[in-house]
Amino acid sequence: MKCKSSLVAAVLMGLFLFVGCNKDEGPLIRMGVPIDSTLVRYQSDIQPIFNAHCIICHTDSDPKLNLLPCCSYEQLTTTGFNAPYVDTLVPLNSRLYLHLTGQLLFMPYSGPILVKEAATILLWIEQGAKNN
Predict the structure, then answer these.
(1) Which residues contact 27 (CB under 8 A, 6 or more apart)?
(2) For residue 18, what are the contacts with CB-CB under 8 A and spacing of at least 6?
(3) What SS3 class is residue 26?
(4) What would the pLDDT profile of 56-110 be if each residue is shown by its tens digit?
(5) Considering the entire predicted model, what is its pTM?
(6) Taking the domains of the chain in order of start, what are their residue ranges?
(7) What are the residue ranges of helices labelled H in the chain?
(8) Of the candidates 123, 96, 91, 92, which has an alpha carbon nearest to the alpha carbon of residue 107?
(9) Residue 117: which region, alpha, beta or left (left: phi > 0; alpha: psi -120 to 50)?
(10) Which residue, 103, 108, 94, 96, is CA-closest to 54?
């Protein structure tokens, strides 16, 4: 009886070790771009993207969405027309991301942002879309 229980315990232990092993898949790649999974900060990583591409149109005179540094976070998350623009539960469904990738009305009108910038915004949303 002891032999059988020892054998069963050994088989189960081996099974748990095998199931627990994960293959290293290398760096996170999104949209063909390696993504650094460090914390994305709104003020230093996200707002500069809006400053470079979005505030040409999305200012305080825009009735739907103001992306100026003073109000962009609140506009995206609570006060903007049809806010929130971010969905931290299903980041790929975030209206902000869908606009930037052309799955909704393509923004910005001036042309696409860099793939790495869109990936950074998606990572920020995945990390909880914090105002940091």
Answers:
(1) 34, 35
(2) none
(3) coil
(4) 999 999 999 999 999 999 999 999 999 999 999 999 999 999 999 999 999 998 8
(5) 0.73
(6) 40-132
(7) 2-20, 47-53, 72-74, 95-100, 115-126
(8) 96
(9) alpha
(10) 108
